[in-house]
Design a protein that fits this description.
By secondary structure, the chain is an alpha+beta fold. The chain contains 17 helices and 25 strands. The chain has three domains: 193 residues, Heat Shock Protein 90 (2-Layer Sandwich), CATH 3.30.565; 123 residues, Ribosomal Protein S5, domain 2 (2-Layer Sandwich); 233 residues, formyl-coa transferase, domain 3, CATH 3.30.1540.20. This is DNA mismatch repair protein MutL.
Length: 583
């Protein structure tokens, strides 16, 4: 008997479901796309426990009659294409006919639907891909789908789902993307029992951006409007100084389909490159409309990956257009300098070292904590390294406003001032938290902080952690929070940027499912954001404080994130380099 066999329909559906439905947000994406294709004017999504327990999607679109409801769960049944030629002229979000049977095969699934021409609708109940019941019922026109216990029959897939807060944030991102793409549709999202996002229909993308990101995003961006040959590009792009700590505020839509594409990302980021700092990204909401026959959306079952038939041409068109739009912001040299005409003895880097005593002041530091309160950090594996430093240490100078140059009786030290301060704050902050000695400075005027919908979920879900860390945030309505209090040791930082960066770090921790280290990760994040920055001039007293406080820490060689703090060049290395015998 041969070894090859035809898989059963049940196994085939589960395999297909693994490609189409990776997690609750995948199911929401497929169902919302179906609702959009059904010409819905309002789409409501209700989830419980990040969609792991329940997902309900309701629309007021065209609906289905009794026969179509039954047929919709046959694999590759669709109303959107009929011939092979239609694959080259796809104008809908869905077309593969895989979503409904795939989702129904890995959940308990109920669908109710009615077309406006009929008085009664249909209800179908499916469990694990098996139809349990189908009947005629009275229901509103449109479609209502309820999914419960997603992946109940695939425990391996269910085991790899992450926290409810993280899964909720992914669903929020899906709703945000399609709310931006279709401002004329009313989108409503609710995570039982408390998270709600409500975006009534508006007439422009600017109004939708205001609903989601707030007035700041509108004020700090410019319209994008380009039309040439077969391409039309529109949306809004942020001012070069309006930067974000990650790519969550970059949205690309091709023919109103949200996509993740390296070519588009590369074209835009290359245009912004002269303005970008390390770990900073622009605010971009870009729509690219192309004739359907110039791209292939049938690349992956999730339909978020596409291929362009002329990628090099598209890259150049986009990059040139964005360069032109950003041209007014690029610095222009009024008096070009001919370097070749400069005397060879003229120092081209004229500020390598700032002598001690000629620096300005830096932010205030928290008061010293008795050495008895210091503890060993558990944020990473640490081993004492006292042999690196040999007291006493003498401050020599500051180099490029970034590094402290010092010496001990065995060589020269180069100390990164930012990560040195980060290590000091981390250990002091952690000990204060352990002894519940956090002092909170209440702001005289609460500071409004505008966040994205997914960030709102994270703040709401982890408010207790933030309060424990000394940050008092209260919801002010919509996606705005009021910052009312901060840890008292934080000085001279841009609070809005700091809070957003801390929330992004929180999101990264939740994404990695590192819940057990969440508090320590947040202590490290706050310490990093509160530490003095590079390009900050320090006087001798401040540098002396940094070095002395650093030596009191449990691990002066590394910051809490693992970056090195000190580089040492020993006397032996110096003498060997210059071929000298030690005196």
């Amino acid at each position: 008997m041969g070894k090859i066999r035809v898989l059963s329909e049940d196994i085939a559906n589960k395999i297909a479901a693994g490609e189409v439905v990776e997690r609750p947000s995948s199911a929401v994406k497929e169902l919302v796309e179906n609702s959009i294709d059904a010409a819905s004017k309002k789409i409501s999504v209700v989830t419980q426990h990040g969609g792991k327990y329940k997902i309900i999607v309701i629309d007021n679109g065209t609906g289905m009659d009794y026969d179509d409801v039954l047929l919709a769960f046959e694999r590759h049944s669709t109303s959107k294409i009929k011939t092979i030629e239609d694959l080259h002229q796809i104008n809908t979000l869905g077309f593969r006919g895989e979503a409904l049977p795939s989702i129904a095969s890995v959940s308990h699934f109920i669908l109710e639907s009615r077309i406006v021409e009929e008085d009664t609708g249909a209800r179908i109940i499916i469990s694990g891909g098996k139809i349990r019941k189908i009947e005629r019922i009275a229901c509103p026109h449109g479609t209502r789908i309820e999914i419960s216990n997603l992946f109940f029959n695939i425990p391996a897939r269910k085991k790899f789902l992450k926290s409810a807060a993280y899964e909720s944030s992914l669903i929020t991102n899906i709703m945000t993307n399609y709310s931006l793409a279709y401002p004329e549709i009313h989108f409503y999202l609710e995570e039982i029992p408390k998270i709600k996002q409500d975006y009534p229909p508006v007439s422009s993308i600017e109004e939708r951006i205001f609903q989601i990101y707030g007035q700041t995003a509108v004020d700090q961006s410019i319209p994008l409007s380009i039309e040439q040959a077969n391409i039309k590009m529109y949306g809004r792009i942020g001012f070069p100084h309006f930067l974000k700590p990650n790519r969550n505020s970059i949205h690309f839509f091709v023919n109103k389909r949200y996509v993740r594409d390296r070519l588009l990302m590369g074209a835009f980021l290359d245009s912004y490159k002269p303005f970008l700092k390390k770990d900073a990204f622009p605010f971009i909401i870009a729509f690219i409309d192309l004739p359907p026959d110039l791209l292939d959306v049938n690349v992956h079952p999730t339909k978020t990956e596409i291929r362009f038939y002329n990628p090099n041409w598209l890259y150049n068109v986009i990059k040139d257009s964005i360069n032109e739009a950003l041209g007014a912001f690029k610095p222009v040299s009024i008096f070009p300098l001919n370097v070749s005409s400069m005397p060879s003895s003229y120092p081209q880097n004229n500020t390598p070292i700032m002598p001690v005593g000629q620096q300005d002041s830096m932010p205030e530091y928290p008061p010293n904590i008795p050495q008895s309160l210091y503890i060993t950090s558990k944020h990473q594996e640490e081993q004492p390294g006292d042999s690196l430093l040999a007291s006493p240490i003498h401050i020599l100078a500051q180099y490029k406003n970034c590094y402290i140059l010092a010496s001990d009786n065995d060589g020269i030290l180069i100390i990164d001032q930012h990560v040195a301060h980060e290590r000091i704050l981390y250990e002091q902050y952690k000990k204060l938290l352990e002894h519940q000695h956090i002092s909170i400075q209440h702001l005289l005027l609460p500071l409004p902080i505008e966040v994205t919908p997914s960030q709102k979920i994270l703040i709401t879900e982890h408010k207790n952690y933030l309060n424990q860390l000394g940050f008092i945030l209260e919801n002010f309505g919509g996606n705005t929070f009021l910052l009312k209090g901060i840890p008292s040791f934080i000085r001279n930082v841009e609070l809005s940027e700091m809070i957003i960066a801390i929330i992004d770090d929180l999101q990264n921790t939740v994404r990695k499912n590192n819940i057990e280290t969440l508090l320590e990760d947040m202590i490290a994040s706050v310490s990093c954001r509160a530490a003095i920055k590079i390009n900050t001039q320090l006087n001798k007293e401040k540098m002396q404080y940094l070095v002395e406080a650093l030596l009191e820490t449990s691990m002066p060689q590394y910051c809490p994130h693992g970056r090195p703090i000190i580089m040492k060049i020993t006397d032996h290395q110096i003498n060997k380099t210059f071929k000298r015998t030690p005196a």
